[in-house]
Amino acid sequence: MYIKGRYIVSAGVLLSFTLLDLDGDGHRDLIVQIYTGGTGLFTFIETYRRDGDRFIRRTAARGQESVAGSSLYSINDRGANQSVSWISIHGKVYAAYRDSGYGVDQVYLLSPLQINRQVPTVKVGYRYQLQIPLTQQHEDSNTTYKLKPELQRALAQGLSKMDEEPPVSGQERQPICPVPPSVNDTEEYYSYGAGYYAIESVADFPVIIDTDCFIARLNNGFGTYSEKRGLFAQLTLRKPGLGDEERSYEVNGRRRIIEISTSIGEVGGGAAE
């Protein structure tokens, strides 16, 4: 049995609580969920142990204005792919905290009323079968269009280069597209450029269309995946020397598990102390 409640404590801050027995002593402990928003749309979760007619915080906060130091974990809704499931093992409640990215899920088993430094961790690795849909959607409208077969093949061939071996550490950096002799500023030939915090940039690679070399980047939502749609990603494309002119194309993918491992180690993501 558990009890839930919700309150708005100030502009942009939403506080909710759950009463649940977390340690099996027959008394309901307190779970506090604090939505603070911000650029990452953050939610912090704190836990309090029941001691008679009062609740004692799991750990002291680092500052009066901060919940980060005392939270069991946080969820970043814009700039990460994280979630939690409350589970019971042998009568004891745990928070199974998932922190994901492209090709990997990390699940940390958190004890809700203790300081979690070394915890059981499950790592699941994936490989994707990526494809460029023939039917694409215009960025500025809900209308669709069809790719030319030769363009679809060129984009797919570029994606296939992502599976090639990465350069050895210490090896001299190579340009993604050939640098013309007349170019003075060569940096834009070595990477796609700056990314955006709300999406995960996976890799930069060349795409050859006709005889022109373009620099491409695969972006996705930190491994967000559904059984119906699979992986939804985006391939962005630019030609070095043409400024900020970009093209983008939808990419779909189906995943398969290539690795499952368990370990005891430090907590990551929004559950790190």
**Could you give a short account of the major beta sheet?**
8 strands, antiparallel
Strand order of the largest sheet: 7-8-9-10-16-15-14-13
Distance between the termini: 30 Å
| Succession of helices and strands | EEEEEEEEEEEEHEEEE
Strand content: over 45%
Count of extended strands: 16
Compute the gyration radius: what is it?
A: 23 Å
How is this fold's topology laid out?
Layout: E1 3-10, E2 13-20, E3 29-37, E4 42-51, E5 54-57, E6 73-76, E7 81-89, E8 92-101, E9 104-110, E10 118-131, E11 135-137, E12 144-146, H1 149-160, E13 200-209, E14 212-226, E15 230-238, E16 247-266
Antiparallel strand pairs: 1-2, 2-3, 3-4, 4-5, 4-6, 7-8, 8-9, 9-10, 10-16, 11-12, 13-14, 14-15, 15-16
Features of the shown structure:
about 270 residues; mainly beta; 8-stranded antiparallel sheet; 6-stranded antiparallel sheet; elongated
